[in-house]
Amino acid sequence: MNAKLEKALKRLKRILPLKERQAECSEQIRELHQHVLHSFVTRGRILTREEMAQRVNHLEDAVNVLRDSELVVFSEDGKPVGAYPFTMEAREHKVRVNGHQVYAMCALDALAVSPMFGMKTHIASRCRITGDPVNIQQSGKTIENPDEAGDIHLGIAWGAVDADTCCADSLCMEMMYLRDSKVAQQWLAEDLGNREIFTLPEAVEFADGFFVPLTH
């Protein structure tokens, strides 16, 4: 991992220290969190509260820990709706995995699914600027359709971080695919102080470094 990626990885971990928060949980809650993640690739959806209750002694205590640590995102009425990198919300980043179509929180998150679970994925999204389709076939950290994927870049608008809003509804909304280097450079130039771009191989390495530790 090059210096640029190491710096970005540390920055994201400071904003959203998921692995550290997971490690602070009890063994039972850590295992529940991992079951929640695996549910997206085995069931194509998040665990329900009833299914969560079967795995812990005290559901409400577990829910409070998962919510407060942002390991699981809940709706206002307490329904589980997401766990990075996944969401039940219909977002622009669709991921086909293990026969299921699921949604990723953001462009970076979509690239994490294949290395996290050791399964091939197909990501269908779009360039945030031009609207052009993005199609990525992935196996682990390998892009299997490099000709079709082309010169896709990942853009992150770090300035979208909001201390009063969970990352799912702030920073994640400003992690996007950009069609090619030219579009990415133009987008970057509009706000050099708060934006950063990555090539697709860099983005895969970034996603792997941030998310894979959550599965162990």
How would you portray this structure in words?
This protein is an alpha+beta fold and 216 residues long. The chain has a domain at 17-83: Arc Repressor Mutant, subunit A, CATH 1.10.10. Helix content is 40%, strand content 22%. The chain has helices at residues 3-15, 18-24, 27-42, 49-53, 59-68, 107-117, 146-149, 181-189, 200-211, and strands spanning 73-74, 80-83, 86-87, 94-97, 100-104, 120-126, 133-139, 142-143, 153-157, 175-178, 195-199. Strands 1-2-3-5-4-6-7-8 form an eight-stranded antiparallel sheet. Strands 10-9-11 form a three-stranded antiparallel sheet. The longest helix has 16 residues, at 27-42. The two termini are 20 Å apart.
Per DSSP, the total helix count is 9
End-to-end CA span: 20 Å
Structural class: alpha+beta
The CATH C-level class name of one domain: Mainly Alpha
CATH topology of one domain: Arc Repressor Mutant, subunit A
Mean pLDDT: 96
Give me the side-by-side strand order of the main sheet. 1-2-3-5-4-6-7-8
Quaternary structure: single chain
- The coarse overall form would be globular
Strand fraction equals: 15-25%
What's the helical proportion of residues?
40-55%
Instruction: Compute the number of strand runs.
Output: 11
CATH architecture call of one domain: Orthogonal Bundle
Our Rg estimate from Cα atoms comes to 17 Å
The helix-strand sequence is HHHHHEEEEEHEEEHEEHEH
Low-confidence stretches: none
